[in-house]
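Re: Re: ligand-bound prediction request (bumping)

Still looking for help on this. To restate: I need the protein modeled with iron/sulfur cluster bound, output as structure tokens. Inputs repeated here so nobody has to scroll up.
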Amino acid sequence: MTKELKSHFEGDNLFESDNGNCRLQTNIFVTPSEVIEYLFCPRFIYFMNVLKIEQHEHKRKLVNKGRDIHALKMVHNKDYLRKKIGAIDKKIDVYLTSKKLKLVGRIDEVLFLENNEAAPLDYKFAFWEDKIYKTLRMQQTLYALLIEENFDKKVEKAFLVYVRSKNHLEEIRISENMKKEAIVIVNEIFDILNQNYFPKATKNKNKCLDCTYRNLCAV
Ligand code: SF4
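Reply:
Sorry for the wait, this slipped through. Here it is.
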């Protein structure tokens, strides 16, 4: 699996506020991959993006993290899958930015559907396990928000193709509540980045057992 686009810092800009004072505005964008890191443990964002300590190894398993270039290449009958979904148009390998949310992401495909909605389609080099993890739902919800802002189309579902299960096609419903939750999480990440505060540890202490940051974390 490849790590999705890393967050990028576009530099700091001085701007004049209403009272005439100059304030520092930092333009930072986060990625769906970073949101997944945050969901695994909020402290990952602190260690990675505030202290800039990279994870040398991904000992823990984040399911279906990031874009899966390998899966993308493995699927030969993509037109059949798009037709099955009801897509009438598509954009492939799309890099999208949300200035509103300060979010960037790269989506395997954006599909435009018969009902005038749009949907992300993501290829996973994985077996279908009869369940979809919250991290993956959140990744697709962030893609939905990016598509809505960039194409001015409603997004209420996302599609996943599990290449190792004979291209099993799975539909995820993207509700308004999921979108609200995604926005809250993005804002929580910005709170950590902007205020440099040390967030709460994950409640699931099993995650700490083989965590790269365990020695720094004092849990
Ligand atoms: S040791 Fe536990 S609390 Fe600390 S960063 Fe790792 S997973 Fe999070």
